[in-house]
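step=encode ok
step=design start
structure_in=
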């Protein structure tokens, strides 16, 4: 499986414009051309992943709306199943797979499963093991995964060595918010992200937004 991390970063390297704010505030700087390109990228992937924290903060749809193409399967890792009952990923009927700990309670499982299009993937004891989750997705036929997660999910994926490709959308905004979310944040993980070398394989300007695409340093 090829896993690509898609992120917005401001000039001062922030993923939001305010501490604890939603990344949706940056979408207003996209313009129609960037929005269409980004949604076409969603349509090119089998599945799309964000963390449960992003679902709670942003209530994303994670569907293809501004370009032709199919919706990717939504994949949401959650250690406790704390997904708001009104969230798009629960209520709009599009396929969503929640990755959960093996010992998640029956009551929480039932609350999630009562919605249309929902499936659960057991992905580790006590908390979601992302390596085990990726293996489960591959077994289910997922060959390409687009990650739109926040700083903590990205940190965990990089720490596990699971990211193959990085796409950075450079938003032309200087936030001045030194406490806003950076690209990587440790969260509860005790694992450091090792230093790694990446190659810039493509650079383009789309609707006034610079897009940089990187692949691993050992890539041809």
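sequence_out=
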């Amino acid at each position: 499986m090829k896993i690509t991390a898609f992120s917005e970063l401001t000039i001062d390297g922030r993923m939001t414009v305010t501490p604890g704010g939603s990344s949706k505030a940056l979408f207003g700087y996209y313009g129609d051309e960037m929005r269409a390109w980004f949604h076409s990228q969603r349509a090119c992937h089998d599945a799309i992943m964000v963390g449960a924290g992003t679902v709670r903060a942003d209530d994303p749809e994670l569907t293809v709306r501004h370009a032709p193409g199919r919706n990717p399967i939504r994949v949401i890792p959650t250690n406790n199943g704390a997904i708001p009952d009104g969230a798009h990923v629960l209520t709009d009927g599009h396929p969503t797979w929640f990755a959960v700990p093996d010992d998640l309670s029956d009551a929480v499982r039932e609350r999630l499963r009562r919605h249309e299009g929902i499936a659960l993937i057991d992905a580790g004891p006590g908390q979601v093991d992302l390596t085990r989750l990726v293996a489960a997705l591959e077994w289910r036929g997922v060959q390409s995964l687009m990650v739109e997660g926040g700083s903590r999910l990205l940190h965990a994926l990089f720490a596990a060595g699971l990211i193959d490709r990085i796409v950075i959308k450079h938003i032309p905004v200087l936030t001045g918010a030194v406490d806003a979310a950076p690209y990587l944040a440790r969260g509860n993980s005790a694992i450091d992200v090792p230093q790694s070398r990446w190659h810039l394989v493509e650079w383009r300007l789309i609707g006034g937004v610079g897009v940089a695409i990187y692949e691993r340093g050992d890539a041809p």
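step=design ok
step=annotate ok -> The longest strand covers residues 198-206.
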